[in-house]
Design a protein that fits this description.
By secondary structure, the protein is an alpha+beta fold. It folds into two domains: about 5-85; about 105-145, no CATH class. The chain has six helices and five strands. It has helices at about 5-20, 55-65, 70-80, 80-85, 95, 125-135; strands at about 20-30, 35-45, 50-55, 100-110, 135-145. Strands 1-2-3 form a three-stranded antiparallel sheet. Strand 1 (about 20-30) and strand 2 form a beta hairpin. Helix 1 (about 5-20) packs across helix 3. The longest helix is centred in the first third of the chain and has 16 residues, at about 5-20.
Length: about 150
Amino acid sequence: MDYKKYKESLKDKVQEQLGENVSVYYTEIVKNNNVKKEALVLQTKGEKTRPIIYIDSLLNTYACTGNIEESKNTVLEIYKRRDDVLADWNGFGWEQVKPYVRIRFFVEKIYISIPISSSSASSAGNRDAIFVMANSSFLRLSIAVR
């Protein structure tokens, strides 16, 4: 299923499950670093707050499993727990907050390009060092809090 079909199918499934009292739609969020992310919004009539769920994390899970029902269930679980998030977090200790913290590790290769002067006496050594560095894997940490 392509991206557009996935989005529409997910939106329809969530809307069907939540009913007419909840408006389900997509919006574009611009982050502080000007990165644009598409998000699914779940707006309940009469409520001023609403869950906003980035679609890329759901799509990554779907790409691995091929199961759109899992994406739908994740969205519904976030919606169901929205009242927990609205509580005053300052009064909670670590044991109460811990179930909402999710950590995901992944390894990503980073490639760099640095020009090397051919007149340098050690250019061959530099090339070897840069090749090793450019093809090394760096561990990046992504933390998502629900």
